[in-house]
Design brief:
25% of the residues are buried. The protein is α+β, with helices and mostly antiparallel strands. The mean pLDDT is 91. It starts with 6 loop residues before the first strand and ends with a strand.
Length: 152
């Protein structure tokens, strides 16, 4: 990281940012085509869980190239200045890299969906096998991630 003064090195702080974030941007690449998509997610033990429909561009790309990058941010706020070039932004963010694996086993899918649901609510809903069969669930095992902050 170029700006060491903005780097977040404490894993507990990075984990807290991951838990606070509402949207995770998943970035993938196929041949010479980058693709990024905002997604709902769950985070546990340095892994991200995502659910999706059963078809689509991101799934096609991930099946060909399971390497992915992600980004989340929290507590964003524009900080204006009299000089337009001196405007800045307050934020805390995490960027990371990893490899995706698709989860096919229904019990493992159920656990992954619980992790996603726990990210957004305390409610415990039963997930039927028929519903699980209709979604694609995948896990991004994080190989590295770094935090960055500005204005904190």
């Amino acid at each position: 990281m170029q700006r060491k003064d903005k780097e977040i090195t404490e894993q507990e702080v990075i984990d807290e940012i991951m838990k606070k974030a509402q949207v995770c941007r998943l970035a993938v690449s196929y041949e010479n085509m980058p693709y990024i998509v905002p997604m709902s997610f769950g985070y546990e033990n340095k892994a991200l869980y995502f659910h999706s429909s059963q078809a689509g561009l991101k799934l096609m790309i991930l099946r060909e190239n399971p390497q992915a990058c992600f980004e989340v941010e929290v507590e964003t706020q524009i900080v204006p200045n009299e000089l337009p070039c001196n405007w800045t932004m307050r934020y805390q963010s995490v960027i990371g890299f990893g490899e995706v694996e698709f989860i096919e086993d229904l019990d493992a899918k159920r656990e992954g969906m619980k992790i996603i649901m726990q990210h957004y609510t305390d409610e415990k809903a039963a997930i039927e096998d028929a519903a699980l069969s209709g979604v694609t669930l995948f896990k991004l095992s994080i190989s590295s991630m770094m935090g960055k902050k500005s204005g904190y």
